[in-house]
């Protein structure tokens, strides 16, 4: 296993002091980087471990914060914050840009080789960065089939991969169709993977607090979705690019 280093980073966004988790592979060379967004509950050890796993693969990875260092385990509190956020593209872009600035400021980040990967609300933030015209190598989302303001998806200049559970009541077939229609109309290079029998947040290990209806862990599809994310990065953001390999 590759030796990595990690550190906590604080930065302002959305009127809060965000607390992100930065993971770096061994070495001093510049590397491609991944902006990693959490589900609506907020940054947890699940996303920190994913950032660490990306660093082990050779990426600089920043798991960004949504709620000023808080994890919202109360579903009502989570929805009260996330629903207005998801309805406000400018706020989502502000949160994304603030985290992106931190990632770009890291000396080992190659600013021309960055991808955004996110889950739920964190995935929606990544999509909004793309709709806002940010230059990314790839956007990968799970449980984040959000649609944007009319015409803005045409600003997305990279491949988009999205994953969703077939039984996800929060992202039902009508939402899938709206998302794919938006991507297709905009000429985006898009892919949608539907994981049969999976609910919302199927990728997230069980938690010890209440969750919104329609959420459930599916261990096999969780592994598959992670492999799909890694494959997306290998295709669009190869670690070996620019390293002479």
Automatic annotation (TrEMBL):
<dbReference type="InterPro" id="IPR050261">
    <property type="entry name" value="FrsA_esterase"/>
</dbReference>
<keyword id="KW-0378">Hydrolase</keyword>
<feature type="domain" description="Dienelactone hydrolase">
    <location>
        <begin position="20"/>
        <end position="235"/>
    </location>
</feature>
<dbReference type="GO" id="GO:0016787">
    <property type="term" value="F:hydrolase activity"/>
</dbReference>
<dbReference type="InterPro" id="IPR002925">
    <property type="entry name" value="Dienelactn_hydro"/>
</dbReference>
<dbReference type="Pfam" id="PF01738">
    <property type="entry name" value="DLH"/>
</dbReference>
<protein>
    <submittedName>
        <fullName>Dienelactone hydrolase family protein</fullName>
        <ecNumber>3.1.-.-</ecNumber>
    </submittedName>
</protein>
<comment type="similarity">
    <text>Belongs to the AB hydrolase superfamily.</text>
</comment>
<dbReference type="InterPro" id="IPR029058">
    <property type="entry name" value="AB_hydrolase_fold"/>
</dbReference>
